[in-house]
Amino acid sequence: NQSQFNAAEQSQPNTTELLQQAQLTTKDLISNIQSLTKALDDLNIN
């Protein structure tokens, strides 16, 4: 029973990993938004 429990626990996604992935995704989104905003500003200037 104990080994079955451990196996089930191993298959659960790691909360810390999920949070890190979410943070990276958020950083990418912010970066993309900043790039788009700058591109729009450049278009408006021209």
- Mean pLDDT over all positions: 85
Can you summarize the main beta sheet? none
Number of contiguous helices: 2
* First-last Cα distance: 69 Å
Q: How much helicity do the residues have?
A: over 70%
Order of helices and strands: HH
Q: Label the structural class.
A: mainly alpha
Radius of gyration: 21 Å
Strand content is under 5%
**Assembly annotation:** single chain
- Overall morphology: rod-shaped
Low-pLDDT parts are none
Number of strand segments: 0
Protein name: 17604_t:CDS:1
What does this structure look like?
- The protein is an all-alpha fold.
- It has helices at residues 2-11, 15-45.
- Helix content is 89%, strand content 0%.
- The longest helix has 31 residues, at 15-45.
- The protein is rod-shaped and about 70 Å long.
- The model has no long low-confidence stretch (mean pLDDT 85).
- This is 17604_t:CDS:1.
- It comes from Cetraspora pellucida.
List keywords for this structure.
mainly alpha, 46 residues, single chain, 89% helix
Short description:
This is 17604_t:CDS:1. This protein has 46 residues and is mainly α.
Give the helix/strand layout:
Layout (H helix, E strand, L loop, with lengths): L1 H10 L3 H31 L1
